[in-house]
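Field reference: sequence -> structure
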Amino acid sequence: MKQLLDSLMAKQIEKGIIAKDEEELYRYGYMILFEWGFNLIIAGLIGILTKALQTTLIFLISVIPLRSFAGGYHASTPLKCAVISNAALVLVIGLSEWLFFLHLPVWVFFLCELLFLCYYVRHVPVDSREKPLSDQESHVYARYAKIFYAVELIIMAILYMAGREKTSITIMLVHLFVILSLLSARIQKIRNEKTIVS
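Structure field:
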């Protein structure tokens, strides 16, 4: 990917599309674009191979706004990020099938979401070394993170009442994944602070 990016940057600078002093900014933007594109392509392939495109789409639509504003664990490399994200997708696909097959009573989902909600509201956003947040940013991110979560809960309840139990289960599992990401980031942050103090 680095070679492709280097070649793209060199051509754009040579043609005068971007100025040399803007190279780092554009390089960062392209890197993010490539990472997102790569993850979306892999997710699409997983959805096709598992015959779970709808679950994959629900996963992506649910997880992207939450992770964007709630924060959470950030992998140290793009490859690790892709592996973790897509492993989470595979787990969500498998678990949603299994939980749907079990036909659990509605109170189980309600209790799970209540526990997730309590943790989520108390701990968002979680910044990281890769994405530190100022106090003002934390306040804004927390507001949006809570709004997106509330919207997803409403959609989840409507879908469940409309007989779309499997889609509701998928959203609940996304919430579990986000909670685990927040918890992992918090543990990592505490470890880093202890290392600095030592």
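Note: The chain has seven helices and no strands.
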